[in-house]
Automatic annotation (TrEMBL):
<keyword id="KW-0067">ATP-binding</keyword>
<feature type="domain" description="ABC transporter">
    <location>
        <begin position="8"/>
        <end position="246"/>
    </location>
</feature>
<feature type="domain" description="ABC transporter">
    <location>
        <begin position="256"/>
        <end position="500"/>
    </location>
</feature>
<keyword id="KW-0547">Nucleotide-binding</keyword>
<dbReference type="GO" id="GO:0005886">
    <property type="term" value="C:plasma membrane"/>
</dbReference>
<keyword id="KW-0813">Transport</keyword>
<dbReference type="InterPro" id="IPR050107">
    <property type="entry name" value="ABC_carbohydrate_import_ATPase"/>
</dbReference>
<keyword id="KW-0472">Membrane</keyword>
<dbReference type="InterPro" id="IPR017871">
    <property type="entry name" value="ABC_transporter-like_CS"/>
</dbReference>
<protein>
    <submittedName>
        <fullName>Sugar ABC transporter ATP-binding protein</fullName>
    </submittedName>
</protein>
<keyword id="KW-0677">Repeat</keyword>
<keyword id="KW-1278">Translocase</keyword>
<dbReference type="InterPro" id="IPR027417">
    <property type="entry name" value="P-loop_NTPase"/>
</dbReference>
<dbReference type="InterPro" id="IPR003593">
    <property type="entry name" value="AAA+_ATPase"/>
</dbReference>
<dbReference type="GO" id="GO:0016887">
    <property type="term" value="F:ATP hydrolysis activity"/>
</dbReference>
<keyword id="KW-1003">Cell membrane</keyword>
<dbReference type="Pfam" id="PF00005">
    <property type="entry name" value="ABC_tran"/>
</dbReference>
Amino acid sequence: MEKNDILLQVSGVSKSFPGVRALDGMNLSVRRGTVHALMGENGAGKSTLMKILTGLYQRDSGEITLDGVPLETHTISAVIAQGISMIYQELNPIEGMTVAENIFCGKEPCRVKLFYVDRAAMNRQAAALLEKLGVIGISPTAKLHTLSNAQKQLVEIAKAISNDSKLIIMDEPTSAITESECQRLFETIKRLQASGMTFIYITHKMDEIFSICDEVTVMRDGKYVDTRPVSEVTHDSLVAMMVGRAITNVYPKQKAQIGETVLEVRELCAGKSFHNVSFELKKGEILGFAGLMGAGRTEIAEALFGTRPITGGEVFVEGKKARIGTPRDAIRLRMAMLTEDRRLTGCLINSKVYDNILTLMWKRLRGPLGIDHRKGKQICNEQIGRFSIKTTGPDQRMRNLSGGNQQKVLLARWLLTEPDILILDEPTRGIDVGAKYEIYQDMVRLAQQGKSIIMISSELPEVLGMSDRILVMHEGEQMKILDAAQADQETIMRYASGIA
């Protein structure tokens, strides 16, 4: 790389926390006008590096320059003023404010000497920014809560442009949007790139690297591994760089002994969410649920687990008609559910690993003198070992674990309830390839032990690679149940799109 081509240069940056060296002499060179992918397993140090670049953390050592000038990272506002903005995976818009108010929050245009916001000017400027992005159908005066996730992301990009950003960092931008919305987002990125904008793009989705990125840097264990043009890497070589070893079989599915029916659903309905859904789940089976976003997959899971009212149909567990009105009813029927959003509805994010694993066990640990914490610690440590959870111990806070390890904690929690039926909603969302592989191995092991699994996933290769059969949904309607061994992505997409 020529020196003049480099917009951002990170040299020898290190950062330590008590007991953890999060970054160890990290290097990163980002050429201006490129989309630069940053990849690594959860816990590789990507988030720590981005927090340093945006002023949330201060580095212990190392140098950072932007456009050849040392980057001042002591405050978030200082970083923004120098030309770096970040769009986070968990968007934080002000839902009750308008699009224009969100874009110009803290820097609203004011009437000269009159000390009040010039809303007409603010709306005009917001409209001009949205037009520059090629955005159609978003009014500057629309409230944020009326927009889709994809539209909110475009508003965040407009906000970054309003800051005169030279570099925009995007963290898992497609984790909660549809395929068509992904394509529109990519078009927007390419349009901005053509105008000279530079991006750091963080994702666990390999296909996106080859669709949108020019170069890729890989991190492992807080250290720099390599930077290569995307044209010179393959899926397998990227995986090997990330995990330090080759993973030859991405989906380690093995045949389990498929037994009798443990769950039967007949003509199940839940208001307008879905209707007339019927299927059987057998002992040792992994039944995949496929469909586009909004097809009703998660809603079926919620109805089966008692968090969404059932308005019609019947559910039978072990041949007996079941009444499921609450999660307590479902747990009593030996069911467990990993929810789609582990941070929002799964983890006790600010609590310890100990509390998260044992939160459904307190009654069983209660003795005449209160909670038996000695026994609790023993059980917790056994689960940490069983699921190979990377943690400093039971007292570590959940918020400090990687996404993959948070998911393993939740799986460990539910397995303590001794369920026969597990519902796993997007079990590998936002998780790196190494952690995904370990989750897949856990699923295979559980199926071989006779557990029955419903797996909801938006990744078709994952559905095909891990399922025995696949139920395909389209706009609340059950389209088809396919044998995974005979199915392919094209067939599933035809049914999911309602055209088969």
